[in-house]
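Q: Can someone sanity-check these two? First one:
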Amino acid sequence: MIKRLAKCIRQYAKHAIATPLFMVGEVAMEVMIPMLMATLIDRGIEAGNMRYIWMTGGLLLAAAFISLYFGVMGGRMAATAGSGFARNLRHDMYYNIQNFSFSNIDKYSTSSIITRLTTDVTNVQNSFQMIIRMAVRSPMTLIFSTVMALSIDAKMSLIFLACLPVLVGGLYLIMTRTHPIFRRVFKTYDKLNSVVQENLRGVRVVKSFVRGDYEVDKFNGISQSIYDDFTKAEKNLALNSPLMMGCIYVCTLLISWLGAKMIIASGNNPDIGMTTGQLMSLITYVIQILSSLMMVSMIFVMLTMSRASAQRIVEILDEKTDIESPENAVQTVKDGSIDFEDVRFSYALRSEKDCLSDIDLHIPSGATVGILGGTGSGKSTLVQLIPRLYDPTFGSVKVGGVDTRDYDLVALRDSVAMVLQKNELFSGTIKDNLRWGNENATDEELIEACRLAQADTFIQDFPDGYDTWIEQGGTNVSGGQKQRLCIARALLKKPRILILDDSTSAVDTRTDALIREGFRSYIPETTKIIIAQRVASVQDADMIVVLDNGKIADCGTHDELLARCEIYREVYESQTKGGEADE
């Protein structure tokens, strides 16, 4: 895990390396100061030597300023390295997410991915900054101060060793009790983000059903859960500081008491006892030793908090897409013909029931195919296999006579345009949204595609026309307008295969008929697959496929299905009056 995260430091490695070096310099100066103070007291103040006082005072000021400089530079370097490290982490995670297949995305919820990109990265960033600063500074302070303390009085300086078992034992208990809590907290964060996202997306439904209080209660319940867990964890972590400070106070009292007795017994003779300056420096060094131990314990606490976050980040970084372009991939889609050969598919590998089974179907290039079926019959699942959003569990799907698994993904998906059930528009102008289909499309091509999708009329009615601003999600246009813009965007790709997944459900039957008539006239060579709930939307198709429980119940023209397919006939009769389609 550490090795994987370390790869994200990259161009900030020099800042990460420079920080510990500055920390070593800062510690060296800080450790010199108590020794200079001891000599200042013993040889200057008590001896009344003003020359020595001025000289040593100058050295103290120099050491203090040098220590300050190293500390400031170390802080700046650590901040730069930490921010850059977090930037690279988010970049690598986001870049890898873009390569995820639908099955990879299904594995992680949107709220979980957001939490990992924000809260988890921040936790790891803070830990990284602490590691390159305090994880170097504290051990070095511990080592240098211990050496200096031993040089003054070996027996007295070993007093702090009596506190080590207490400190180590307490820290171990704190870490083992808090780590599981933090793992639980971060999972609860995922639920919190999910609730907020769901509420914001469905705010119109929430308000129309007057369910605001219910959503508030749901949010408060999850927030309370996070509060309770964090409170429990922080109560455990709060024990660390009094434990450490208690040890510092006990050691200071013991050294002061024993040291004072030694000074009195020796008559302030350094040859047989201890001087006042040595006692002061020894107390300072012991405090530095125990303070550095306290900082080491805080580092472990921070690592405990960030360990769960680091594991969640590495999960995203190491996740491999299960759909990739093969070596020597086919780069060109010859035509729009589609073949399903004994296809079975299941979203879960160990599912007892397949979503699709026994699918054998041939669609000629340029044909118009309608797909009908009840909710959950597998209509959307079937067409998602064509651009290889998923791979079939068994069998093969061929486009242009070539298995989709043999194509370069970009080449295949550039040849297939899909307008899904959940239409998505992005913040920007209408032109910006349309050019998602073809970034190099001219204004004339935009207008032609919109006329074909029956969108040009309402666009021209806007004051700014094609420069009208679309809010995120297309909230400032109607459902029917959004669908027609998405159809126009798909047409700009000039695909060999056009898939409309119930994408005219929000438009009236007349507009729907005009769109289908435009398809026949302007893109006759494009294979058109239309998933619809209305028989009127597909009855003129060259072939209509009826799905039932993931299987093809029947396949044929409108008249053929009326004569022999009971499912199709029932749907038709339920949507007609007096035997005539209600158009």
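And here is the second, same format, sequence then tokens:
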Amino acid sequence: MLSLNDPITKLRLVGPANEKALNHLGIRTIRDLLNHFPRAWEDLTQIQTISEIRPNEKINLKARVRKIADHSARFRRMHLTEGLIEDETGSVIAIWFNQPFIKNLLQEGKEYYFSGKAQFYKEKLQFMSPTFEAAKEDTIHTAGIIPTYELTEGITQKQIRYWLKSCLPLARLIEDYLPSSIREKLGLPNTSYAVSQIHFPSSKESLEKARRRLAFGELFLFQLALASFKQKIKSLSAPRILFDVALVKKFVASLPFRLTSSQRLAAWEILKDLAAPHPMNRLLEGEVGSGKTVVAGIAMLEAAKAGWQSVLLSPTEILAWQHYHTLQNLFEKSGLQIALLTGSRKIGSPSDIAAGETKIIVGTHALLQERITFKKIGLLVVDEQHRFGVKQRMALLREQESSLVPHLLSMTATPIPRTLALAFYGDLDISVLKELPQGRKKIVTRLVKPEIRKTAYAFVRKEINNGRQAYVVTPLIEESAPRPSSPSRGEELKEGAKAATVEAEKLKKIFPEFEIGLLHGRLPGNEKKNIMDEFKSGTVQILVSTTVIEVGVDVPNATLMLIENAERFGLSQLHQLRGRVGRSDLQSYCLLFAENSGQAALERLEALVQSNDGFELAEIDLKTRGPGEVLGTKQSGYIPFRVAKLSDKKLIKQAKEEAQKLLEKHNLEDFPILKQKVENLAKNAHLE
């Protein structure tokens, strides 16, 4: 007798090579295998006849093998297996290439189900390499709704279906973590039924019933984890930083620009949170250039005047530098000490930080690993990272006077669609900056065809001769390079993509009269800073870069953005890149180069040409490329849904409501299995 926790090697025909391949898919036990749900299903329930065969159309047949033979093809190193199959309406030749074992699997005179496409071969319509299975009541690969699984090298669909079918009876042992009251209320089947039917559904109706049950379960667990985390946050103590109205009014009045109405609203929401006795957990979401740093700066000023320190963490050194300079300018007249701590640069005294004299500390996430002593951290601002749990915050509290948990403000320039926010960010309160500062002009975006590239370069030359500057963005750092161990976001190597190092050399020949700089994630921190300083000062006219300039880089004189291989980026990422220009009252332009792209890619890019609305573009990305693309590879974090989809809006809403109701009426201790699942999920999602 097998059990759910038995290793997969206990299954028949799982050898060492199969075990290694299955491990690569995260499958080590029989329980893991049962939880490896299909990614799609093929409806092969409709059995047709040989007379209905049409070229290049999928067909399912029940036919008898009349004759089977094999031979080698002339003038080729190819082995052919041919079978004459027939039913009451006619006969057809089925042919398999380089699969000599087929002859031993098919018996003359026996009936089989066949599934595949017919094509013309040697001027005859023949059944090409069909899948087959002996005609019987309980089939695995044909004559039903057939599952298709995510695979890895060394595993076939037939193998994984065979192993799953053999251990499917064990699904009855899977514990149901969903309270029976919720199952009955929503009309959901139990887990064992759902797992059985998701793999080998008896009908379309049972498949949908199983999918709905498992999808709700995933969504419910995640919403429960988010709601539990929110409850936990509210049970902790944080510094009460009271709203100093006079201080904020004076600071806002001193700014050389007028705050937008959404900046004012967001600042008010944040300041109200800071005055509460429990930690703030807020996401400040705003378009590129919408002024998030100013809003965060108001909160930092409030904290500083109340005697607390603020730490601002950035994903890159370039962005940390940018924030440091922005805050220096904002607080130039306030007398606040600001420190910068990155891997390659340190400004400010550690003793001043430890004594609490330095009120604002800007750095990369390396700050968490360094043994830096703080006096009293009251506010933590994190840029472009939405998940930042209690344990990570506690790491900053080592050797400081206060044991209170800091308030957390996350910032993102990635517009998050409403369904995504509802599904993933239930633990965060969200503030949105909707408008851009006054005087900003709409960025003119154009999709450049290969035949007019020279015309585009002439336009670039004209703009630079008028005193402007340009970015050129490529998806790669260099050609034929080994994959970096920890590349910056978007700098992974992709076949056929353009490389920054090569593009920089090419542009030096095209624009010999201009200074061209090169920037990418593998450069040492000091080199990055020097190149950016040269670009900001105007010494460098064209900056060739990877997506390391995607967030935070602010050069008002740069009015041109050229993006190579634009089809390789998501719309949200392209929108972020485009936001590096248009940061003054000068007219700016974004030129998209997408050579050898298909119609679907060009239509997607046309959406960027037509729209400057990040939320609209994020919705398109969500539909066409999924949540990981909208959030970006570093921001997506842990996406725990294998069955649930973001189009399941009704289920998402139900799951959130039921999770909140359960926590209002019960303690998770009342549901041990559910509690364990929620804790495991929270750990994987870094909600701790």
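A (reply): Looked at the second one. The chain has four domains: 1-43+144-174, 46-142, 245-433, 444-611. The domain at 46-142 is CATH 2.40.50.140 (OB fold (Dihydrolipoamide Acetyltransferase, E2P)).
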